[in-house]
Amino acid sequence: MAPSLSGRRFLFLALLLALCAASTPADAARALTPRGAGAGAATKAAQQGGNATATASAADAYLAPHNQARAAVGVPPLSWSVDLATAAGKIVAQQQRQGGCAFADMGASQYGANQGWASYRASPGEVVASWVAQGRYYAHANNTCAAGRQCGTYTQVVWRRTAEVGCEQATCATGATLTICLYNPHGNVQGQSPY
User: Which of 11, 27, 48, 179 has the most CB within a 10 Å radius?
Assistant: First the structure.
């Protein structure tokens, strides 16, 4: 039986608070997400020579909320990268097999990364919305996050110099969802404003 909507909100809030309390490097970007749909359609279709419409639809599910947030602050839209989606797919698959769907260590990656985890199947739009929601803690005037808050997932989404994104999801044995988006060029450069 699926948890009620209020139960999901409580679980999401509890997980979000736990994440916000954890210390993360300045260049790391992580977030938690709400509920939703499918896993891996874009990369699987691309790798298997699948339906171009399915691939485009999965890519659009990630791109639309990214580009809506970017348009809101006047930065150019992102393009979808099959190469980044494939790389993200390999990472989520590894985490699914070896890490129990835990966040991946992205410290050595040449790309920017946002990660999302939900206790149920989360849709791409919900995941990206949770990252964008951190924007309420970001103060552009002095390029800082509110005390005790994180906003690195938001600043990666809207990073002006980032040009492309590729994302992938894995559904864990428990029914949880791990989502990773990779960004090129990476954002969250210490001392620089995202836009």
Answer: 179
**What does the pLDDT look like over 136-149, one tens digit per residue?**
999 999 999 999 99
Label residue 4 exposed, middle or buried (CB < 10 Å: 0-12, 13-18, 19+): exposed
Q: How many CB atoms lie within 10 A of CB 10?
A: 12
Task: Compute CA distances 192 → 120, 143, 148, 160, whole Å.
Answer: 35, 8, 20, 11
Give the span between the Cα atoms of 122 and 187, in whole angstroms.
24
Residue pointed to by tokens 């190469």: 83
Cβ contact 194:155 at 8 Å: yes
